[in-house]
Amino acid sequence: MTKSVLGATISAMNQPSTQSRFKAIPVVAGLALATALTLLAGCTYLQELVGLGVRQPKVTFVDAAITRLSFTGVDLVVSLSIENPNSFDLHFSKLNYRLMAAGIPVAKGELANRVSIPSEGRQLVKLPLTVSGDQAVKLVRDLLTKPSAPTALLIANAEFDTPLGPMQVSFEDQKPLHKLTGR
Q: pLDDT exceeding 70 applies to what percent of the chain?
């Protein structure tokens, strides 16, 4: 054998074969996956952090109260109960909402105040609304002429900040008007 052929043969014997290198890849990947699954199975917070357990908050339309009545309009405060089932606080940065009564769109608004909902807790959120005088007259006229019990429908869209980034929640709830005002 020549010196160069002998050197190449010895060099090839010292290098792991391509086949044995490919066998090591699944073993390393399997160990990494097993480690990650063990960490995730043992820690609820990590499950929520990676998106396996984040749950949407439950929103309930509680009531509406008149705060001011005039010829130009009616000011209301609508109360929502927001329940956070997660093990971390939720913060909503934006809430758009609109109120319909007896099928008539009467008011809409946006709450841009940052509100925090504690982990596994509940928060009452009050939303200000103004019904214009024209809409109030139209609503009263429809309420007096329709025989069925009038209802109020609240439609809201909220943006919550979570450890994984923003989460959007849409909400609709309908109640009879007499139950909302306590009469």
A: 67
